[in-house]
Amino acid sequence: MGRQELLDYLLKEIEKCGFEIFAVDTFPIAAVVNVDNKIMVYNFKDASPFEVAHELIHILNKDNPRGEYFDAINPQEVRANHEAILLLWEIFEANGGSYEYFNVFVDTTDAPFELAYSIISKEYSEMHQAITEIFEDEIKVTINKQEMHDYIVDYISYFDVIESVNIYQFLDHYHLNHCLYELAEKEFQKISYG
User: Fold this and answer.
1) 71: how many CB neighbours lie within 10 A of its CB?
2) How far apart are CA 5 and CA 10, in angstroms?
3) Is 15 left (phi over 0), alpha (psi -120 to 50) or beta?
4) Among the residues of 20-101, which ranges form H helices?
5) In Å, how far are 97, 139, 176 from 179, measured between CA atoms?
6) Closest Cα partner for 47 from 77, 76, 7, 9?
């Protein structure tokens, strides 16, 4: 989904909430909503998907009007930023995006890179950890020495010269549980000295 398609989708979601939307080109800020009057004004030249999603979150949470536009310590603003990134990420994934294309996500949405990275990497890490915990027993049972050997041979084929190997990085690269550290270490030693 491209930037304009994403903006159109978000604006339609705002309309579904019963809001009247005014698109202008001279508004001094990117976007603003008045939840009480069900009005949104946005600068169609400057508003990014992140900024429109941020306003959609204010609508969904029925946030009261706030004092200053850039009130970064207001809990409503912090929550709106956080939830806007999660909403945009959900849309991104639903359209085939993944963590490997994080830069595409930031470029398309104009989400603040550092904030988006901290939120999405945490979500991605928690999801990966939950999946690993669910299948931990199966992972322990199904991996054998030959499979580990094959993973290691594949891994070292990417390097011209190997002086040292970080086994945890190796395990993470192949999405293997860290409980396989000892098996991987033994197989690395066999290949190195064998």
Assistant:
1) 12
2) 9
3) alpha
4) 49-60, 75-94
5) 30, 9, 8
6) 7
Amino acid at 43: N
Between 38 and 174, name the one with better pLDDT.
38
Residues in the chain: 194
CA distance 18 to 159: 58
Prediction pTM value = 0.65
Nearest-angstrom CA–CA distance, 3 and 9: 10
Residues 72-102: pLDDT tens digits? Answer: 677 888 899 999 999 999 999 999 888 888 8
Let me know: does 148 contact 184? Beta carbons within 8 Å. Answer: yes
Phi, then psi, of 135 in degrees rounded to 5: -100, 15
- Does residue 19 contact residue 11 with C-beta atoms inside 8 Å? no
Query: What are the phi and psi torsion angles at 131 (to 5°)?
Result: -65, -45
